[in-house]
Design goal:
Elements: H1 15-34, H2 40-44, H3 50-74, H4 91-118, H5 137-171, H6 173-187, H7 193-202, H8 204-213, H9 217-238
């Protein structure tokens, strides 16, 4: 197993954000030229909520970008075990991953109160009520695919398995942790300024899990449980 990773691909994960933006620009441009509403593409796959459609497009690009990063690193002798795909998901790791997911959600309440006091908007779109608002069965199917199946392994491979490790091998644990958090927060900058701040602090949980177990499996589980709450439970319980 390698003790250090090449650092030159540190910004590679941001390709998925650029590709997502280009995809939406293409969709809206094509729709405008054809005289069709922008939401026509989303309706074609049974999606009415623009948030669900955005997450789906992003998740597909995130998965492709993670795959491309793995392929590039493999050509330099970096295998999946070097990116944290190793070890076993012990009972202790499962428990800590679940505890981290709960703690991350509990962090939301004091953070959101402070954000509102400071007047920092959560989303760029002030009319947006939630991260996603799936209403139909098909929309829930798409959000399960995107938020629960594709995003956790893609983001954890890119950021905990690669970015955090690559930084740690160069600048030490604490500085690597903080810079990794900043990069992961900026990676979510297209959603809104308040969310960027929250994600910075949220990032401590999967990063510390990775540092403890040197495996992305607990991180993926924590990320899965977090998205299960945000993408499924919150829309069902609070946004209907």
């Amino acid at each position: 197993m390698r003790t250090s990773l090449p650092i030159r691909y540190l910004l590679f994960p941001f390709i998925s954000i650029i590709a997502t933006a280009v995809t939406f620009f293409g969709i809206y441009t094509a729709g405008y030229m054809a005289g069709l509403p922008p939401e026509r593409a989303a309706l074609a796959v049974g999606i009415r909520d623009p948030g669900v459609f955005s997450v789906l497009i992003y998740a597909l690009w995130a998965a492709v970008t993670a795959w491309a990063l793995v392929r590039i690193l493999r050509s330099e002798g970096v295998g999946l075990p070097d990116l944290g795909w190793r070890g076993k998901l012990s009972l202790e790791a499962v428990g800590l991953a679940a505890l981290a997911a709960v703690a991350a959600e509990m962090l939301w309440f004091p953070f959101d109160a402070a954000r509102q006091t400071l007047g920092i908007p959560l989303y760029w779109d002030p009319a947006r009520r939630g991260f996603v608002q799936p209403a139909s069965t098909l929309e829930f199917v798409w959000i399960v695919l995107a938020g629960l199946i594709l995003v956790p392994p893609a983001e954890e491979t890119m950021f905990r398995g690669y970015v955090l490790q690559a930084l740690e091998g160069r600048i030490g644990r604490l500085r690597a942790l903080l810079l990794h958090n900043l990069l992961f927060a900026l990676y979510h900058g297209g959603i809104g300024p308040g969310l960027v701040l929250y994600v910075f602090f949220w990032s401590f949980f999967p990063a510390l899990l990775y540092m403890r177990y040197r495996s992305v499996y607990p991180c993926i589980l924590m990320h899965f449980l977090n998205n299960l709450w945000v993408d499924i439970a919150v829309p069902l319980l609070f946004l209907r």
